[in-house]
């Protein structure tokens, strides 16, 4: 009897842990059909202003409560099973993906420090959410020391370790609450911690270890390097991180009796190794292949792609062996602000008459602007914009950059500016594609996923700007489907993730095709974008840095003490 | 008996002919007190879309109907006299000022061609309003030929003759309607034509002849130069312009019986030589002195100043001997868009919530934005903008430039952008002041006039940015008061314009004083402005020209034939 064949008639559960909620998706193993789903909001959301018992948090902090994660398992999974109308006994495996780097201090048994008696009011005892940006000074130290000592791994991260990642956040903990640092037996990604809760044993996944934990070529940064950051930090990797790294899609263990009770799923079913929301989306978009770039487009955009070879791409977020799929090099790049920029404009730059028209026609303001913005020919607005309102994550890796709009006249309209902003993000993506291609990692297919795929006008702009057809992921729940695929592999239903992706992933190919005439105009505009990109972004005129410094000084000098938080990275 | 003393107890009338209406102001000769005023709208306004009997006008056209000018005399003057409550017999003189260059073809007796039988439907028979911008190709020819032939006068105009001026508009007439060109005995500024209507004889004023008519060092451009533009144009200056030039403040003649009947004023009272709205404002702001720059701030800003010496200031609009006051060199510079830019932003870039708040508080949207924009410290917005949404008139003299905003983040608000736009116009003014000063024409006092002086927050920004105290004209009707001053001189009540200005003009000195801390921040921001000004404006990156070309091509390529008019110069 072919066990695999049986399993393919069964179901798996994928759980996507986002910033404010978790979604469970029940998926048929044989073909990836989505049988049912449910969402559970985190009661505490993102804790970025007030921590109960402690009071106001400093600017740029963002914490979470790990009880929300287990609570979401208990709420969303049974609801999704009910929604699917299946028997929980049909479920053969579970896998999860998480925001990253969301990391926390825990005891040797996995207990989060914030759950220990007397520590509930200590901010550093909690998971630091990916968008906790208060560790920038620590990231600066990490980067300066790495370049000073010529650490080879720094080039695997485009030359810069982010303040969002594991080491910067851990160094902040050591600096600001050394007692808690000492009490933490382990420093772990939420992506791995949730697996610990499901199967009862600690694991570490290749994705977060590589992209967020500076794990390269089989090891973490050396003791000497860590000691150079702080002598007390020398043992950090050996003490708090050290653990074998597991490939994505591997079986972490069997569902523990406690987790089975929590979720209503059968004891002992396969629990897959943890994963990250963006990266896990790649197999959800069908066949896995080097050169297939998947852009997960939401408030920001994450570009993930497998490559057959190792290359150092300037300004990428990272390259990790098996970081997306075991056996291939996983590349990641990103744009800090995409949907965020459009949302900013619709809240701040649009006259009331448009809001009224949107209400009257019962469409969203962004839909209305999409429509108005694309009613005129390409280039008719006479504008070019830089898409750095949230800083630049790739290729320049500079959070202190800001956006610019050039070409405004007294005849310029709000929809025209909006279109220039849409286009600017497409130019940013083209810059990333071009940089990968010229660095020896050619992009051969471009796939879009994420919330922004709902905007057909935006997608058409992307196709025209990058002069390539756009394939679209065939699921509205890419990360959760990607997790389900990993669950199927961990359960042994498929030999590996590529095989499972081919069967369970879904892609609609060439949904948007470039229009040659528009693409010609965009070629001209992109040349202007590149020139301004390099002028403002590569040091010719560092006006954006100086403006930010002037701004920060102005706020510091305010009589009220200058605690107001201003956006930016 | 001292005739002058008697006259000083009398009244004069100043009439300011604007773009859409004319204002008459009755002023006491002895002290400049404003006794009464009235406005008359032109029934035809600016004819820029449809000319009755002809149909749609091409893009960038703007005409007027001269009957509106005489109609305004008949309506506004008697109303102003009534409003003043004086007897018309107390009026001893009248003077006018006009937009410029607003010029027209007329017969030898002053009859406008458009008033001849059969010519009412011919667009070229009408006065071309100052903002008629369809003669750009002709201005381009004028400039190319001037530089090719090394004409010395071109440097008196910052190196460029504007498409708005007499020669470009006349050359367009010749090109496009040669028959009408032939029938025109004279080509005359409306500023001079209206005087002809008042006193029955043709005169030519030093101001429009110099600034708009290329009259320098006692002559117009040479026949050879004009022939190079077009052989049929060789006689243009000799045939259609030639006439003695009269100094400002001189008596053009006595009020004709016909004009007396029209206006209700006494026959024979002094009619002063014509003048231009901006230039005539200088004496209205009190004592005349070299180095006193008067900025007339409205939709655009005109900077006028007397200098004791002739100098060539890069990118000025013009320098004319006696162009503002006889005996001094009159300098003019300008910013194409100022109030226009603020109005553009309030109509296009402000969310509905602000409009609602403005309604609720019964203030204008611009007042509300002024207040919100200046609530934060200087530099706190982290923005820098270029004030070229209407092109750049000085120092770059380039109508194809456009505006830019740099430093936008996801936290940037509409009032912050608005403030950056306010500041950008102040930086543009500082650039003009600096350019004059470094060219040997030092600015020693800065006086503001025009509609924008009502915005105290804007005025304070100007004081801080230019690091000088701002004096404010003491009249809300600067041009009409300036005309009245000229009327008093023409009537012999004062020996010359400076004497009349000292007695009748009004200025409040040092109303706004720079705050040193804010001025320090603005020094930093101005340095950024200068760097971007030179980068985008002096040819390093001609992206703005290219964007405009792309835009124009996009519109031409539209299926509907591309006749939509787009802003710009």
What can you see in these coordinates?
Two copies of one chain form a homodimer. By secondary structure, the first copy, chain A, is an alpha+beta fold. Chain A has 20 helices and 19 strands. A seven-stranded mixed sheet of chain A has the order 13-14-12-11-17-18-19, with helices on both faces. A six-stranded mixed sheet of chain A has the order 3-2-1-6-10-9. A two-stranded antiparallel ribbon of chain A has the order 4-5. In chain A, a hairpin with a 3-residue loop joins strand 1 (11-17) and strand 2 (21-28). In chain A, helix 17 (478-490) packs across helix 18. Chain A is globular, with a radius of gyration of 23 Å. Chain A starts with a helix and ends in a 13-residue tail after the last helix. At the A-B interface, helix 12, helix 13, strand 16, helix 19 and helix 20 of A face helix 12, helix 13, strand 16, helix 19 and helix 20 of B.
List keywords for this structure.
homodimer, 569 residues, alpha+beta, seven-stranded mixed sheet, six-stranded mixed sheet, 20 helices, 19 strands, 39% helix, 17% strand, disordered C terminus
Most extensive interface: A-B, 62 and 62 residues
**Major beta sheet summary of chain A:** 7 strands, mixed
Radius of gyration of chain A: 23 Å
Low-pLDDT stretches of chain A: 559-569
Question: What structural class do helix, strand and pairing data of chain A support?
Answer: alpha+beta
Question: Distance N terminus to C terminus of chain A?
Answer: 56 Å
Task: Give the gist of this structure.
Two copies of one chain form a homodimer. The first copy, chain A, is an alpha+beta fold and 569 residues long. In chain A, 39% of the residues lie in helices and 17% in strands.
């Amino acid at each position: 009897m072919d066990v695999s064949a049986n399993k393919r008639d069964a179901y798996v559960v994928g759980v996507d842990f986002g910033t404010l909620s978790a979604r469970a998706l029940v998926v048929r193993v044989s073909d990836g059909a989505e049988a049912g789903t449910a969402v559970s909001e985190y009661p505490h959301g993102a804790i970025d202003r007030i921590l109960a018992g402690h009071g106001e948090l400093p600017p740029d902090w963002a914490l979470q409560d790990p009880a929300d994660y287990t609570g979401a398992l208990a709420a969303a999974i049974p609801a999704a099973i009910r929604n699917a109308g299946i028997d929980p006994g049909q479920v053969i495996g579970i896998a999860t993906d998480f925001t990253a780097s969301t990391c926390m201090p825990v005891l040797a048994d996995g207990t989060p420090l914030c759950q220990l008696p007397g520590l509930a009011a200590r901010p550093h005892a909690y998971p630091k959410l990916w968008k906790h940006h208060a560790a920038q000074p620590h990231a600066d130290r990490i980067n300066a020391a790495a370049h000073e000592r010529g650490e080879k791994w720094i080039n695997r991260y485009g030359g810069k370790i982010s303040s969002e990642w594991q080491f910067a956040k851990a160094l902040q903990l050591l600096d600001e609450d050394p007692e808690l640092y000492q009490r933490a037996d382990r420093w772990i990604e939420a992506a791995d911690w949730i697996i610990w809760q499901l199967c009862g044993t600690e694991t570490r996944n290749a994705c977060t270890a590589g992209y967020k934990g500076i794990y390269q070529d089989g090891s973490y940064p050396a003791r000497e390097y860590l000691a150079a950051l702080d002598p007390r930090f020398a043992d950090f990797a050996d003490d708090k991180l050290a653990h074998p790294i597991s490939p994505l899609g591997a079986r972490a263990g069997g569902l523990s009796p406690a987790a089975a009770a929590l979720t209503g799923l059968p004891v002992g079913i396969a629990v897959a190794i943890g994963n990250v929301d963006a990266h896990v989306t790649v197999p959800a978009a069908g066949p896995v292949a080097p050169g297939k770039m998947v852009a997960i487009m939401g408030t920001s955009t994450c570009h993930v792609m497998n490559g057959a070879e190792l290359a150092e791409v300037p300004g990428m977020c990272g390259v990790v062996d098996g970081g997306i799929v075991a056996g291939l090099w996983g590349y990641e790049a990103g744009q800090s602000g995409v949907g965020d920029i459009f949302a900013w404009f619709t809240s701040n730059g649009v006259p009331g008459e448009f809001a009224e028209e949107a209400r009257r026609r019962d469409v969203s303001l962004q839909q209305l602007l999409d429509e108005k913005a694309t009613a005129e020919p390409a280039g008719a607005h006479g504008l070019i914009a830089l898409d750095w309102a949230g800083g630049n994550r790739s290729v320049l890796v500079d959070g202190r950059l800001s956006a610019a709009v050039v070409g405004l006249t007294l005849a310029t309209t709000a929809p025209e500016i909006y279109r220039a902003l849409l286009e600017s993000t497409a130019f940013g993506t083209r810059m990333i594609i071009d940089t990968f291609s010229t660095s020896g990692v050619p992009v051969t297919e471009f796939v879009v996923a994420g919330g922004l795929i709902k905007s057909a006008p935006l997608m058409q702009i992307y196709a025209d700007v990058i002069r390539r057809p756009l394939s679209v992921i065939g699921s509205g729940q890419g990360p959760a489907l990607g997790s389900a695929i990993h669950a199927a592999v961990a359960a042994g239903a498929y030999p590996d993730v590529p095989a499972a992706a081919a069967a369970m992933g879904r892609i609609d190919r060439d949904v948007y095709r470039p229009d040659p005439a528009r693409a010609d105009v965009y070629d001209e505009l992109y040349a202007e974008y590149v020139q301004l990109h390099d002028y403002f972004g590569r040091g010719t005129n560092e006006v954006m840095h100086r403006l930010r410094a002037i701004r920060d000084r102005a706020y510091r000098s305010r009589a009220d003490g200058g605690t107001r938080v201003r956006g930016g990275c």
